């Protein structure tokens, strides 16, 4: 059994029950079918990034809430042991480095976008802070396109759809800190 799939299943069920929602009510709020939610909770389905974002937005939780682990005083993240969330085309991978914690109000990801590929992200809450670690990406948000190269950083409010594009010949890697002010 995949550790990430197990964490997603456990956390989704815990969050849904904490909110006092039936599967039907959760399906209505998220736009994800009751059967898909049940399959995710039973570890019978490995949801895409888009599906997880729909659920997170509908339940008004952070994306990384699905990947939460136990709190520790020191947390070392060994990248090669992480399991990414992958988009439907397998061109975009997101690794949760530090999951959301209500007292800290942020989460940090390492995102990897294949050469010559594109990722469409739905609007969501919070503020994003991007730092390009390798390659280059174009980010289109609020009708404006920003080109970011290695070492460049950008802050934006993701309350509108936004698109990440890698027009380069190599994979682009960027860190994404999402801050939730409320």
Walk me through this protein's architecture.
It comes from Sporolactobacillus spathodeae. Keywords: DNA-binding, Transcription, Transcription regulation. This protein has about 180 residues and is α+β, with helices and mostly antiparallel strands. It has two domains: about 5-65, Orthogonal Bundle (434 Repressor (Amino-terminal Domain)), CATH 1.10.260; about 80-180, Jelly Rolls (Sandwich). The protein has four helices and ten strands, in the order ααααββββββββββ. The protein has a six-stranded antiparallel sheet, with no helix packed on it. A hairpin with a 5-residue loop joins strand 1 (about 85) and strand 2 (about 90-100). Helix 2 (about 25-30) crosses helix 4. The radius of gyration is 16 Å and the shape is globular. The chain starts with a helix and ends with a strand.
Q: How many runs of DSSP E, i.e. beta strands? A: 10
Strand content: 25-35%
Structural class: alpha+beta
Detail the poorly predicted runs: none
Q: Count up the domains.
A: 2
Annotate the secondary structure layout.
Blueprint: H1 3-18, H2 23-30, H3 34-41, H4 49-59, E1 85-86, E2 92-98, E3 106-113, E4 118-121, E5 127-134, E6 136-141, E7 144-149, E8 153-156, E9 162-165, E10 172-179
Antiparallel strand pairs: 1-2, 2-3, 3-10, 4-9, 5-8, 5-10, 6-7, 6-9
């Amino acid at each position: 059994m995949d550790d990430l799939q197990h964490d997603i299943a456990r956390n989704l069920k815990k969050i849904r029950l904490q909110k006092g929602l039936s599967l039907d009510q959760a399906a209505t709020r998220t736009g994800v079918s009751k059967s898909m939610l049940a399959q995710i909770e039973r570890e019978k389905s490995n949801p895409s990034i888009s599906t997880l974002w729909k659920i997170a937005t509908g339940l008004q939780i952070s994306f990384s809430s699905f990947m939460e682990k136990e709190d520790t005083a020191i947390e070392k993240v060994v990248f090669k042991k992480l399991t990414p969330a992958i988009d439907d085309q397998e061109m975009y991978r997101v690794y949760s480095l530090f999951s959301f914690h209500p007292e800290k109000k942020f989460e940090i990801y390492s995102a990897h976008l294949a050469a010559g590929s594109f990722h469409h992200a739905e609007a969501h809450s919070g503020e994003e802070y991007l730092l390009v670690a390798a390659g280059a990406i174009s980010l289109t948000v609020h009708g404006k396109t920003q080109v970011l190269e290695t070492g460049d950083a950008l802050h934006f409010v993701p309350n509108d759809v936004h698109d990440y594009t890698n027009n380069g010949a190599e994979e682009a890697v960027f860190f994404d800190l999402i801050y939730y002010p409320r």
